[in-house]
Amino acid sequence: MRIIVTGAEGFVGSNLVLVLTKDHDVVVLDYLVSRDISNLPEDIDYINCDLSKVNINKLPKADLVIHLATISIERISETPMYKDINRTSMMKILEYVMKHKTDLIFSSTASVYGSGTNFTESSPLNPLSDYSATKILEENHAKFCSENYDLNVTILRYSNCYGDTTYIKNKFYPGKKDVVRILLETAMKDKALPIVRNQSRDFTFIDDLVSATCSVIGLKGFNVFNVGTGIETKIEDVAEIIMQVLGKQLTLKTIEPRKIDNLKRRSVNIDKISKLWKPKYGLREGIELYAKRRGYV
Questions:
Q1: pTM for this entry
Q2: In CATH, what number is assigned to the domain containing residue 32?
Q3: Which of 121-125, 172-176, 242-246 has the weakest average pLDDT?
Q4: How far is CA 90 from the centre of its chain?
Q5: I want to staple 51 with a disulfide (CB 3.0 to 4.6 A). Which of 43, 58, 86, 89 is the partner?
């Protein structure tokens, strides 16, 4: 199967591509300042371009597009017009899949639900940022195209992925550091760990998220799935696990919550996808493996 992966240099993309290339012909697309610094192998079939401006007629024909390319919530909060780049990029992808009758997997986010716990795929949506609101618009466009043009489309609402070992400043729209990465890197400097008190998230290890994405390849019709663990964990508990894994005893520094997407709690219900996939790693297991990959233990 030939698969195009957009946003391939990112955290999820770069990990996913390494798995997909074992069994598939993979074409990757991202927008780099220079390929001198890359998260992907040098010999991979690479398209370096701004997806929002790409001529879809110049893209190779594929059986599946996995659309991961997105400008992060932080970048959009700093520059709100960037949300239009996300929307335009999605429309380019939909134009492409409609033309070629190509299957589509689209990475959305659990932040579309807002604050709360045990969200199912049919729960009301309550976005608390431009980023999340735009993801909902993109989901709706994808659903419309699936139902009106007979396309196979699967939307995955990822929940707080961690395990990032990628270089994040190699793109025109640089990536971001997740809370687990921030805490790990801070702990290795023996500094106080910055946490927001009384907040919780559903943390998903990167290997699990990649396997979940692979599990939906080939699905027919229109589908929406949550991807997480279904387990709610407080940020201060994450910090404690990190200290235990690293064998360090550090202080916690309380910081103010960010103004954008300020969720008190979040966990997702994964019953729907559990027929196809189940997470393998608990939070401690994931952080232990993450720390080993970073060379911290």
A1: 0.96
A2: 3.40.50.720
A3: 172-176
A4: 15
A5: 89
